[in-house]
Amino acid sequence: MADSTAPAEVADPGVRRVNELPDDRFRAELAQCLDIGRWVEALLSARPFADRAALVAAADAHARTITDDEADAALARHPRIGERAPGKDAEAAWSRSEQSGFADGEAAVREAFAAGQAAYERRFGRIYLVCASGLSGTELLDGLRARMGNDPAEEARVVADELRKIALLRIGKVLGTP
Questions:
Q1: Is 130 left (phi over 0), alpha (psi -120 to 50) or beta?
Q2: How far is the C-alpha of 41 from the C-alpha of 19, rounded, in Å?
Q3: Residue at 5 is within a domain
Q4: Where does this protein have compositionally biased stretches of type Basic and acidic residues (predicted)?
Q5: 171 and 84: one domain?
Q6: Dihedral, 56, 127, 138, 146 alpha carbons, nearest 10
Q7: Is the pLDDT assigned to residue 3 strictly greater than 50?
Q8: Same domain for 55 and 81?
Q9: Dihedral, CA of residue 82, residue 87, residue 90 and residue 96, to nearest 10
Q10: For residues 48 and 20, is the Cβ–Cβ distance under 8 A?
Q11: What is the distance between the alpha carbons of residues 53 and 15, in angstroms, rounded to a whole number?
Q12: Which domain holds residue 154?
């Protein structure tokens, strides 16, 4: 739980709510943003946050050190692009919303993407992950094709950065984007 050094009046109601969450609820909510225990614990230790910028800066800084093993573990929580995230929780709803541009795309693009995604999985041994929010099916396909040229080490860095982008997007959702 947030300690007694929390600012008396945090203006942002989302930050105030996050600061006041019991530790177990904080862990559960932030794991929906990025399911890496070290990242969640670092943010828990950084509470209380004075404002949204402080929370986002801490989240960003700690997400920039994602290891390959952490990325692989976090990927287990992400559905493939084009697959409907199961469940009725916030994380599943976020995932469906983030991929909405793909779902509304042309059938030919979705088919080409599925084939490209299968090739990606054979090449890199993991699902293809991208922060899909706001991207069309064509943009997602172009990005997938471009990343197929990466070597495995570069692609691991790209995946970690995509996880970071998704985490920051979802932090805004946890806070209630103004």
A1: beta
A2: 14
A3: no
A4: 80-91
A5: yes
A6: 90
A7: no
A8: no
A9: 20
A10: no
A11: 10
A12: 70-175
